[in-house]
Amino acid sequence: MTRLTLSDAQWAKIAPYCAGKETDVGRTAVNNRLFIEAVLWIVRTGSPWRDLPPEFGNWNSVYKRYRRWVKSDRFSKLFNALNDSDLEYAMIDGTIVKVHRHGQGAKGGLGHQAIGKSRGGMTTKIMAMVDALGNLVDFTLLKGQQHDMAGVKPLIKDKEFGTLLADRAFDTDWLLLDLEERGSKAVIPPKSSRLKQRDFDKEMYKWRHLIENFFCKLKDFKKIAMRAEKTDESFAANIYLAATIIHLR
């Protein structure tokens, strides 16, 4: 199967933030670039770890290293180190992913891993915020049957943005009041049930396709599109890695 390689330009940006690099105290890690490409191959193809091509090394050794990175939040640190988002304009929305049978069976039950039962079966919802270029800023995981609004507060907490774009599902009084108090502009269509309809910038609202585009790019990574991870921490690590690669394209 074709190897998914990082370009030299991508690796030059990623390398300084990898654990065990030559400038770190202690043992130098063995070929960080090959390790990142191995994890990327798994996340992109959705294959089981046992199917990792031999050119990446022993699958079990790579998997154990991956789990060490997951537990130490190394993938999120890598993402945050390279995140240079401009939040003059921010967009939020959610997308559903159906949980593969390989993603079920974690200790403590599915409810502890943001997996819920909806009309589509066992699902997870990814609530995300992207910037004006459609690059990921932050995300949170919800059970599939939860309303999108349940993920809004974690996404907007401690963030400053000039304008927030969202669809009419986010037309709630508390969010509009919060944005007004922040001095941020709300580009959110009013629900038809509102007695007094609000005006909103219809031309600017067209930009909201950028977050839908991001979800499409994210779901090109098969292990994310079918939620083939039992734990939230591993699933989130895959999203951080995929979003990093998308940002560096």
Automatic annotation (TrEMBL):
It holds the Pfam family DDE_Tnp_1. It comes from the Bacteria. Residues 91-243 form the Transposase IS4-like domain. Residues 6-79 form the Insertion element IS402-like domain. PANTHER family: BLL5188 PROTEIN, TIS1421-TRANSPOSASE PROTEIN A. This is DDE transposase. It comes from Psychrobacter pocilloporae. The lineage of its organism: Bacteria, Pseudomonadati, Pseudomonadota, Gammaproteobacteria, Moraxellales.
